[in-house]
């Protein structure tokens, strides 16, 4: 069985900045080797990649489903959060959020000292 660590290692070792996408979107069922995931995700990010991921099994029912499907023990939610934060992976909680973040990754980075502001519709009570 190929794990997310194997996929990240392959992408890291064969990354070609001239030809490969810098946007990596992942759906992770289980994490077998957190140190390896951290190493290769961090390496890809240093090479200019942006990574977002969904970790299946965050809820109790999702955890049961993931463990019954893969036979692996699902990682605790707080451990996954800490690992993603340390690696620089943007954590998403739905497929819709993952695709939205992927679209945002395609936008150019904002430069300068000012923050962007997004107009919000007025709330009527």
UniProtKB/TrEMBL annotation:
SUPFAM superfamilies xref list: Succinyl-CoA synthetase domains
Pfam families the UniProt entry points to: Succ_CoA_lig (PF13607)
Entry-linked InterPro entries: Succ_CoA_lig_flav_dom, Succinyl-CoA_synth-like
Domain Succinyl-CoA synthetase-like flavodoxin: 2-102
Protein name: Acetyl-CoA synthetase
Originating species: human gut metagenome
